[in-house]
Amino acid sequence: MTAAPYNYSYIFKYIIIGDMGVGKSCLLHQFTEKKFMADCPHTIGVEFGTRIMEVHSQKVKLQIWDTAGQERFRAVTRSYYRGAAGALMVYDITRRSTYNHLSSWLTDARNLTNPNTVIILIGNKADLEAQRDVTYEEAKQFSSNLCFLFLLRSAVSRSENVEEAFLEAAKKIYQNIQDGSLDLNAAESGVQHKPSAPQGGRLNADSQPAKEGCSC
């Protein structure tokens, strides 16, 4: 008996990283459940969620690991970096310490993932402008210098940039597949190619340039 085909063509592994309390779990919940939570409990170790998105007329299943931000869990959470195709790095615009610690999170991401892992910087709680402790300009410059996409996300219930963050990462991963810079046969690629996908893993890209990003 022939097995039923998968209802998606690819699996992409994502990780969400950043300090405790920046809103990583709320980001995951809002994306996977399409429901806003004003206050999410702190993650102990890791949390997991999935969602299927359509990208360039192909269905992609995102497997997303939300990692704890506490230092005492770093040894555990680092093991989840391996084989990640995308990384969402989150800070709280009202807490400068969470921005200052980005270099540490980025070091782990660079050291523990593959060189083609797509990294997106997310400034959370963008609606709390009166409490802002990190300027847009400095965060934009930080992301531009390192050549990855920068987005702001509101702490209130609007979800536009939540969707955009995951979608833009998926588009870039697709681009890496198409141009051959991502080896689908390598376990560390963070991508699994399912039987329902076109042979060869090449895609008809019609993506638009990522906002606030650059082509490195």
From TrEMBL:
It catalyses: GTP + H2O = GDP + phosphate + H(+). Keywords: Acetylation, Cytoplasmic vesicle, Endosome, Golgi apparatus, GTP-binding, Hydrolase, Lipoprotein, Membrane, Methylation, Nucleotide-binding, Prenylation, Protein transport, Transport. It is an enzyme of class 3 (hydrolase). PANTHER family: DRAB11-RELATED. Belongs to the small GTPase superfamily. Rab family. It is found in: Cytoplasmic vesicle, Phagosome; Early endosome membrane; Golgi apparatus, trans-Golgi network membrane; Recycling endosome. This is Ras-related protein Rab-14. Its cofactor is Mg(2+). Its main location: cytoplasm. SUPFAM superfamilies: P-loop containing nucleoside triphosphate hydrolases. NCBIfam families: small_GTP. SMART domains: RAB, RAN, RAS, RHO. One of its GO terms (molecular function) is G protein activity. It is a lipid-anchor. Its EC number is 3.6.5.2. Residues 189-216 are annotated as: Disordered. InterPro entries: P-loop_NTPase, Rab_GTPases_membrane_traffic, Small_GTP-bd, Small_GTPase. PROSITE patterns: RAB (PS51419), RAS (PS51421), RHO (PS51420). The keyword Acetylation applies. One of its GO terms (biological process) is protein transport. One of its GO terms (cellular component) is Golgi apparatus.
